[in-house]
UniProtKB/TrEMBL annotation:
It comes from Pseudoduganella dura. One of its GO terms (molecular function) is DNA binding. InterPro entries: Homeodomain-like_sf, Recombinase_CS, Resolv_N, Resolvase-like_N_sf, Resolvase_HTH_dom, SSR_resolvase. This is Helix-turn-helix domain-containing protein. Keywords: DNA integration, DNA invertase, DNA recombination, DNA-binding.
């Protein structure tokens, strides 16, 4: 919780509070190094996460400090990677702070968004993050394009291999056998049968309307 009485630790430029955030990700690490650096920087209040790393996002104190920060405050970290786990995540958090009128300072990299130089760094980071998103998107689209060219579509792989599909095609030539019967035999859904047959070039007529009854 934010300590509103900690008026002796104020940012000289913004007049807001200096609030620290520290994080370690394994049990054999401790927070002493970060805590000492944040205290020397003037942080009267420090939020600390000691995550196990097992959960995808195990940072409850980060969520708490982001809620506690007010316009004019400055969030201080020992190093950039203590705040975020990726460049995209970092830029998103800092942008959200800026929208709230909250400054950001990283002691190791000497970045301070309350200064002109710090805002310049932030602009560079934002451009890099956008570039990474664009590259990921382009690679994904190229991968899908290559897969389509080879007759494969995106999504989950089929539960039926080529041999099973050939067997199913032979079975369905018998008008007395329904897709439902085949699905039970291969322990898959009827949708899987349809999708597997439809994905094959030159698919036969399975006469699936006989399953409607």
């Amino acid at each position: 919780m934010r300590h509103s009485t900690a008026t002796n630790n104020l940012d000289l430029i913004t007049g807001g509070m200096l609030i620290g955030y520290a994080r370690v990700s394994t049990v054999d690490q401790n927070l002493d190094l970060q805590r000492d650096a944040l205290q020397r920087a003037g942080c009267g209040q420090i939020y600390e996460d000691k995550a196990s790393g097992r959960a995808k996002d195990n940072r409850p104190e980060l969520a708490a400090v982001l809620r506690a920060l007010r316009a004019g405050d400055t969030l201080v970290v020992w190093r950039l990677d203590r705040l975020a786990r990726s460049l995209v995540d970092l830029v998103q958090i800092i942008n959200e702070l800026g929208e709230k009128g909250v400054g950001f300072r990283s002691l190791t990299e000497q970045i301070d968004t309350t200064s002109a130089q710090g805002r310049l760094f932030l602009g560079v980071f934002a451009s890099m993050a956008q570039y990474m998103r664009d590259v990921i998107h382009e690679n994904t689209m190229e991968g899908l394009k290559a897969a389509r060219a080879r007759g494969r579509m995106g999504g989950r792989p089929s539960k039926l291999d080529a041999q099973a599909i050939r067997e199913i095609e032979a079975l369905l030539k018998d008008q007395s056998i329904t897709v439902g019967d085949v699905a039970k035999r291969y322990k898959v859904s009827r949708a899987t049968i349809y999708n597997s047959l439809n994905a094959k070039p030159g698919k036969p007529d399975t006469q699936t309307e006989r399953d409607a009854t």
